[in-house]
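Dear colleague,

Following up on yesterday's call, I've attached the two folding results inline so they're easy to grep. Please treat them as preliminary; we haven't cross-checked anything against experimental data yet. The first protein's sequence and structure tokens come first.
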Amino acid sequence: MFIKVSEELRKAMNRDDVMKTLTTYNEDGIPHTTTYRSLHINNEGRIEYYDCSRCEPDKQDMLYCMAFHKNVDITVITGEGIQHKITGEVSKALIMGEEFTLARHNMKKYDTESELSAIWIINPQDERINLA
């Protein structure tokens, strides 16, 4: 189950010129935050994160969050000063198939040096908007 995100958030997440961060948590609760241009919202309203082979801490944390139903946090900051905060549940990882192959080609516009290792699907649970 997941919430329907606002149209404003959908547009912001699917722009390449906004800052998007993903915060994952390890088994000790220690956060790891990284900026990713590849975070976007798919046609179903779920958040997709393209994980590349050089992001080892994220892989471990994403697996932990998925296995133990721990949430991740996403922050999207637009050039207009609007900050969207999303809490989500990692629901699955795609590692092969048609969608994975297509994403592998699409990822090259974000990162030409790395290989896609997984597409993480995140179900939005909460959305908050802060104005600057």
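Below is the second protein, in the same order (sequence, then structure):
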Amino acid sequence: MKRWIVILICLFISGCAGLGDYSINLSGNYSLLRTSSHNITIAPKSKNGEGMWDENVIPAKVVEVGWNKDYIIAKQQAYPNEEYFYWILNVKDEYVEGPFILNDFQKKIKEYDITNLELKLVEDIQ
């Protein structure tokens, strides 16, 4: 009987929504938000209260991200065709550019002299 209770508790806990959700502070007022395995976005923190965010500036699914004090760059896996797009967020000016294909993204990061920024897998930075 105890064995079944332990198994049921483990199944219940692993099936609970929200256990894998998190936020990671990036530059400025921005955070990487994970609200499900397919809904990983970048949004500014809300002025309305802690733990709240405004509308996404980079849509789901963000799979890689890199940042410094001036810029946030991101790689997005678009649904349903699973194409990859790239985004550049100017933190100071609160200006987002994208989506870009890889070639155009590489040109832009050279133009902005941010080639030293490295995209890292979201799973590796949490």
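For the second protein, one point worth flagging: The helical segments are 2-14, 102-111, 122-125.

Best wishes,
A.L.
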